Amino acid sequence: MDTLYYDGSCPICVREISLLRRLARDSLHLQDLNTVAEHSGEPTRLLMRTTLHLKTADSHWLTGLDANVRAWTHTGWGWLWQPLRWPGIRALADRAYAAWAKRRYQRLYGCLECAEES
């Protein structure tokens, strides 16, 4: 089972997770990162707040749009997200996501320097 870690303090994240919760099959576990303990060898809570993280069933970590696209493959709508991983579109989509994630973090937590350290 894949596990998507999301920021339960973020209204935007909570809305998307609410939609995923309704649409996803049982193969996706949705976990508020604010409710789990940090473990050695895993991404820190700060890092997970600055960009989306998903741990695959075989214990690999995906981040950013890779995590988002993987999460949506657990729904009937996953095919709509696949073009974001196509060559040519991928680099542009990743830059757009990184800019959005940095801005979201700054607005929510007011700490741009922390987001840049991640």
Number of helical stretches of at least 4 residues: 5
Using DSSP, what is the number of strands? 4
Structural category is: alpha+beta
> Which percent band covers the strand fraction?
5-15%
Low-confidence spans: none
Question: What descriptive keywords fit this protein?
Answer:
118 residues; 14% strand
Describe, in plain words, how this protein is organized in 3D.
By secondary structure, the chain is α+β, with helices and mostly antiparallel strands. Helix content is 47%, strand content 14%. The protein is built from 5 helices and 4 strands; from the N terminus they run βαβαββααα. It has helices spanning 11-23, 45-50, 64-72, 89-109, 112-117; strands at residues 2-6, 28-32, 53-55, 61-63. Strands 2-1-3-4 form a 4-stranded mixed beta sheet, covered by helices on one side. The longest helix has 21 residues, at 89-109. The chain starts with a strand and ends with a helix. The model has no long low-confidence stretch (mean pLDDT 90).
In short:
With 118 residues, the chain is of the alpha+beta class. The protein has five helices and four strands; from the N terminus they run E-H-E-H-E-E-H-H-H.
Task: Describe the SSE topology.
Elements (H helix, E strand, L loop, with lengths): L1 E5 L4 H13 L4 E5 L12 H6 L2 E3 L5 E3 H9 L16 H21 L2 H6 L1
Parallel strand pairs: 1-2
Antiparallel strand pairs: 1-3, 3-4
